Amino acid sequence: MRHPGIDFDIKIGTPIIACSDGEVIYIGEPGAKERWGGGIFVGISHGDSHEEYFRSLYGHLTRIFVVRGQSVKRGELIGLSGASNNGYSHLHFGICKTDCKNYSGTYDPNGFWLGGKAQCFDLSKDYSNYSQKDITIPVACGEYAKELVARTIRKD
């Protein structure tokens, strides 16, 4: 089976963040019979007022903190990671042209990393001079991850 995207091997409950600025366009669960299913999927459209550059897909979430139609900024908390139907705990992350369900329009996320290499979102960095076409890792890292976990615990 074709599997476009990247699987990040992470523990259930890891904070998942927006890879770039965009708008939440999809929140849902894949069909229960899908082998690759499990958890909640979130889709974000990235672009400007003239054109949509691509969509990002975040799969197998256990909890979400965004709503459809919401604008999000790079590094903003989207949800918490979960597992696929077979129990594999991870984040499935994909980049698509228009429809992430149609595998013919998918891209390799490795071609979109900010500065040409995968890097964590840095809360202290100013990203305003970077294009929305350049992405950071969709998994919160280091102290920022700890801060987001603490924030989600306070919401409970």
Tally of helical runs: 1
Structural class assignment: mainly beta
Tell me the helix content.
under 10%
| Residues in β-strands, percent | 25-35%
Set out the fold topology.
Elements: E1 6-8, E2 15-17, E3 22-28, E4 40-47, E5 52-64, E6 71-72, E7 77-83, E8 89-96, E9 106-107, H1 142-155
Antiparallel strand pairs: 1-8, 2-7, 3-4, 3-6, 4-5, 5-7, 5-8, 7-8, 8-9
General description of the model:
With 156 residues, this protein is mainly β. Helix content is 9%, strand content 34%. Strands 1, 2, 3, 4, 5, 6, 7, 8 and 9 form a nine-stranded antiparallel beta sheet that branches. The protein is globular, with a radius of gyration of 15 Å.
Give a quick set of tags describing it.
156 residues, 9 strands, mainly beta, nine-stranded antiparallel beta sheet, globular
